[in-house]
Design goal:
The chain has 332 residues and is α+β, with helices and mostly antiparallel strands. It has two domains: 140 residues, no CATH class; 114 residues. The protein has 13 helices and eight strands. The strands form two sheets. A four-stranded antiparallel sheet has the order 6-1-8-7. The chain starts with a helix and ends with a helix. The mean pLDDT is 87.
Length: 332
């Protein structure tokens, strides 16, 4: 029924223009880089860094795995360099032995293999002296870190290579505050925390209507930060600002003041939407069909969602997850 109704929908030119304008309207904005405003408050003393470290020690603990690792290749198992069926049969045999609880020492003796390498490694592929361990891929590091005391020995395949890994010990080692990497990580955390706090204060003022264009200009003057004027051609204009930020700007009306940030709070801007230029599309335009289809798709989607919400509010729907899983497994 819904497909039948949706198939008969024909959006009016008015609705098509709404869709077109939403994407293609032009916006003149004024921008203050809040990172420049916050700069004075992002200089942290040694005491602040130490206090943050002491209060968040759990964040600066690294897991190290001590293990033995042996690469299996045709040369040491078969005496040649050929990846033959016989080699893979031996690999399967080793896998079966590990599954049955045999350890690395037993397998080494049974197949007369060379001695395994001993190493200690963390999630970054570094040893306990913070040196990168060469010859081990990130994927292999991840698989090594998945080893646990319950099943300490495993056959691991990585990039068409085979390894026997046997866990010896897992250690939680507290990082040292004097480590340059740790210190930089703390400063980064303090930067983000401070930026979030200061940004939240401005947003709170805006939401309470206590921050207007006069305050916008005053902030620029008091902090000696320039106001940059930007002209956005459409919703997809990401030449100056990231797409995610442009989307935020296009969600608000003319003369509004807003704060926009990227996901990691590395970039933060105070925006004044100075002017919006609405646009229309002519029916003779080559793009008209594109926006007609887009509008129709949105109406149909809204129709489905409305009907779905109606059913949800009127009836209690129980899902048979066992039957659903059986269907999923059938197609997998």
């Amino acid at each position: 029924m819904l497909d039948f109704i949706g198939g008969g929908i024909s959006p009016s030119k008015f609705l098509v223009n709404i869709s077109y304008n939403k994407i293609n309207q032009k916006r003149a904005i004024e921008l203050i880089n809040l990172n420049d405003v916050f700069m004075k408050q992002l200089n942290f003393s040694e005491n602040q860094i130490k206090t943050y470290f002491e209060n968040n020690k759990d964040k600066y603990i690294e897991i190290y795995k001590s293990l033995k690792l042996l690469e299996l290749n045709p040369k040491q198992i078969m005496g040649n360099d050929e990846f033959s069926d016989s080699f893979f049969k031996k690999i399967d045999e080793i896998d079966d032995l590990i599954f049955n609880g045999e350890n690395l020492n037993y397998i080494t003796q049974k197949f007369n293999l060379e001695k395994a390498n001993s190493l200690t490694i963390n999630e970054f592929g570094k040893d306990n002296n913070s040196k990168i361990i060469t010859g081990i891929s990130k994927a292999l590091v991840k698989k090594i870190l998945d080893l646990n005391e319950t099943q300490p020995t495993a056959l691991i395949e990585d990039n068409n290579k085979y390894y026997i890994a046997e866990l010896r010990k897992t250690e939680n080692i507290q990082k040292n505050i004097n480590d340059e990497f740790v210190k930089n990580e703390i400063i980064s955390d303090l930067n983000q925390k401070t930026k979030r706090k200061l940004t939240a204060e401005i947003v709170d003022k805006i939401n309470k209507n206590n921050f207007n264009k006069f305050d916008f200009d005053k902030l620029s003057k008091n902090e000696n930060v320039n106001i940059k004027k930007i002209y956005l051609k459409n919703l997809n204009d990401d030449k100056i600002l990231k797409k995610e930020m442009v989307n935020q700007i296009y969600a608000f009306a003319e003369k509004k003041i807003i704060v926009i940030s990227d996901i990691g709070f590395s970039k933060n801007y105070l925006i004044f939407i100075d002017k919006i230029e609405n646009v229309t599309i002519d029916e003779s335009s080559e793009e008209y069909q594109k926006y007609l289809d887009l509008t129709k798709s949105k109406i149909v989607s809204d129709l489905y969602n409305t009907y779905d919400n109606y059913l949800s509010s009127r009836y209690k729907i129980d899902i048979n997850y066992q039957a659903l899983d059986e269907i999923k497994n059938y197609f997998n």
